[in-house]
Amino acid sequence: MVPSQSGVDVVRKIDGLLAQIGDDLQSRHVVFREELKKIARGTQSVDLTLWVEEGNGKVAKEVMKLPRQTFEPGTERYNRLIEYVAVCLNIRGEILGMRRVGIETGDGVDPDMFLTDVRKYFEMEFFITLRDANFGRPIEWQTGRIEQGKIRVGQVRAGRYDHGKAIGLVVTGTDIKTVSLESGDIVYHKQIMIDQEKSLSVVLEECIAKAAREIDADHIEEENIYIGVPGPVDPWGNIVRIPESAEVTREELEALQKKYPKISFINDANVEAAYHRIVWAGDIATNQPTVSLVLRKGIGFAILVEGQSLSWVGAPTETHFRVNFAADAPVCNCGMKGCLELSSEWVATRFLHLMSKGGIELPSEFAGRAGSENGGGEGRHDLLAEDVGTLLKHGGGGGAASTIAARVFREYGRNLSILFGELARLMGVSGFWVVLSGGMVHQRKQRDEIVKGFAEGIDTKFPGLRIEILRRTNEAEAKEEIIRYERAPENWQGAVGAALCALQDKQMKMRMEPEVKMMIDEAEDAVPSEIAEIFYTEQKLSVQTIIGAAGASGGGKSHFIKTLKNRLEELGRSDKRLEGVKVKIITMDDYLIQKEKRKRGGIRAKYSLKRLWGDLVAINVGDTIYHPVFDQVSRVRYTRLGRFLDEKSAMLGHRLSENNTELFRRINRLTEWSGEAGVKLKPVKNTIVIVDGILALDDPVMNKLYYDYRIFVDAPWIWRLCAAISRAQQEKWYKGANTADIIEKFVFKRPEEEAIINVTYLDADIMVENDFYEKSVDSVLEKLLGEVYQSLDKNLHAQYYIVYALMKDHGYDAKAIFNEKLESINELIRESRIEEMYEEGAGVKLMERVCRMAELCGHSRKD
């Protein structure tokens, strides 16, 4: 097709722009996002939309308005566009992860062909991203938009670091660092070089055994141990890829994990980020995006936003994306030409090249290490980046070597500035706090030159982007024998970070014993007496007696609180000291925000927490409050008119919100003008207020200054899952009647639940253990299985119940299968590790395994 005259002019303008395009990434952004957009305004244009589901489930989109002529297949401009789109996807995938890609084009452009060409280029050029961006799984490609689903929120780096014992390690290409923590002190630290003659898994096991002896950890197999490793690791602590190395292999590391299943791996940059997040405390990480940049042989980094790892639970972020499009661009260790990641090896090679180009000889003590070099700056040599850093201080040869060394490190720093330009573009922020660590910045002068180059790059290419380099932590002196974790020397911060992550894991999984713990039956008698004593002896903190009661959803917390209320009121009738006592319950669920009005941000974003804490402060001084009312069935906060209509419908024998939830939601939305329904709570002197909610103990100020007594009610995750399955079978309105779906929901929210809710048990005055579900499941299994019950492993009753439910969902004769194939079921349970499920899709995978086992055992589904 011959273009019109105006089309010829447009083509000439496009080709002229592309002919002048620079070799750097920024010039491509300017051409494709700004200059071509200007041309598109005067001609036929196409809106190209890139949809990406990132690693945490968030869906992002980028829109480019381009002249239609850019999309003509077979032309150089089309090829350049394909390259640019693939580069943009590569960058987002490396920084934020990438699960799915969607591409939309306007009329007149074949979206299937365009998608195929982009995908082909991407898979050919960006093989590292292809493997890592979705944790080793294939990236899904589609034409059209991607709808937003659930977002996983990064684990909050919360914890109580002055309590407990933990072990952490970091493995590099050459050495292993091991640390033991006890009550916040580094009581053991050891560095050893990797011996190629010995198996790495054996060496690591020896390191762990020595560290365990220092903190009296007798059962290593029961210890939560974190090991920092180079290369990407998935959010569940499994290795995705280890860079090629003779000393460190994925097989050796996974052999150790197989022997000790509680070992978790974590990317070495993320483990240093965890350390800095903890040491720099909440204010810094909350107010500004913080980047922990680890500069060693390669470049590693992790991003913290609002105290959370941006890639939901610390998944890796990499720098293997193209920023240099020159024909002579250096080839990265990853094999990609023009990669952002300039290695420490590049520093030495670049230095020697510039020395050779300038006709400058190395100082005598380094002369024998230059080796042979070709004209491109490549060749064999023994010089290290550390040596180039040492030459910064060298005064020989008129200081020429020092000048060239400084130039190389500034080039390295300018290259790093590109990373922050891309971070700012993708995240929509205007600045970062940056923590620098790693061998490349260990020497002061070396660090200073890198920072200078970094600043030059920001000022030149990204004016207006604000970067603040945080000062280094107050490191301990070498002579100190016992060091606080906050003062770990820089070269030990990764291993200490790994130990702190292990400590967090213990707290999140509630493997550290609280000071006071009771079974629920005992607590139902003891806790009311404790609270009564606080009330009548006036030991309370202020005017009112306020109790905080927390615990994970479905753990029996609300039942315990109702029992507590009844017991206290009984005491009020029988004990003159408590005469006339009234107990008011404030349910945190009443402060839920309707889904369509919530900000995305995890558990905390679901609640009007600021309002709740404000109401408690008001109650504390005796003021009246009006708290909202939330309907658990229709999942909306009542309006005044909505509540009136619901109460009237209840008088007729049914509740509107129960019988037609969608209709009630619509009514409630339409009647917002009537104002929010509220419950008046006017506390008097004899009122005890109990706050019932999963986040009741989440605020440290409330815990210390306003609660007179703090309770945490706990039921293990797997027993709460059993309770949810049972409830789904019994209650029609309960969502999720399919067992696999219920498992998925429980697995999805588990990481955040552990990181935010579970850790608060250490702030409670008492931990109440609820064994009701355990007893209930035992009783149900005995009825369901009859004689087989006696042959069951008592430690696996919860798992048996879940497997039985999955069989029944799919029409199998579960009782017969249990009777005939109990050993096969036991094997499936051991291999599936249901109690340790965290990975997305775990419910579906378990369902498929159960169905496959049933079919292999000769059973078929009943119609």
Quick gist of this model?
The protein has 863 residues and is α/β, with parallel strands linked by helices. Helix content is 43%, strand content 16%.
Q: Describe the largest sheet.
A: 6 strands, mixed
Strand content: 15-25%
Rg, alpha carbons: 31 Å
What's the tally of helices? 28
What is the second-level CATH architecture of the largest domain? 2-Layer Sandwich
Number of strands: 27
Can you tell me the number of structural domains? Answer: 5
**Named CATH topology of the largest domain:** Nucleotidyltransferase, domain 5
Ranges where pLDDT stays below 50 over 5 or more residues in a row are: 1-5, 282-286
- What class do helices, strands and sheet pairing give? alpha/beta
Termini separation: 60 Å
Assembly form of the protein: single chain
How do the strands of the widest beta sheet line up side by side? 9-8-5-6-7-17
Helix content: 40-55%
Briefly, what CATH class of the largest domain? Alpha Beta
